[in-house]
Design a protein that fits this description.
The protein is mainly α. It contains 7 helices and 2 strands, in the order αααααααββ. β1 and β2 form a beta hairpin. α2 packs antiparallel against α3, α2 crosses α4 and α2 packs across α6.
């Protein structure tokens, strides 16, 4: 029974990631966006001391967030990513924006966790740039 449950979990996870990649494939600026948002959202859930089952559900919801919006993780990923109309924002500018709109555009409880994740380096491990400003991609193995 446990083996089948794990197989089912893997199939669901792979299907969700495949769907997210299809949505994100619309242009080069959104590639892997949903996967990053899912990882940020799952980590916020863990830091809020949600159960692993709930954290997993949050991850799945975030993978398909472009059918709706997740808020703070989505905004963080948009700010920290290069777009066709601008380069990624600096860490300092992102923190400034999160603090400025906390309680208005963003849930202040979630902003607190997102800021912790930025400051302790969690977000850097998911999405960062090399010394020449090129994005470093390494998310292929995350949901296996």
């Amino acid at each position: 029974m446990e083996i089948q449950r794990e197989k089912d979990r893997q199939i669901i996870s792979q299907a969700m990631v495949t769907f997210a990649y299809l949505v994100d494939a619309k242009d080069q600026y959104t590639q892997e966006h949903s996967v990053r948002v899912a990882l940020y959202s799952e980590e916020i859930a863990r830091r809020m001391r949600m159960s692993e089952a709930d954290a997993t559900l949050i991850r799945y919801i975030a993978l398909v967030h472009d059918c709706g919006k997740v808020g703070v993780p989505d905004a963080y990923d948009a700010m920290s990513s290069d777009r066709c109309y601008r380069s990624h924002l600096s860490k300092e500018k992102i923190l400034e924006e999160l603090n400025r709109y906390s309680g208005e555009q963003f849930d202040p409880e979630l902003v607190k966790y997102m800021i912790d994740m930025i400051e302790d380096g969690f977000t850097y491990n998911i999405h960062h740039y090399d010394d020449d400003g090129r994005e470093v991609k390494h998310l292929e193995e995350v949901f296996k």
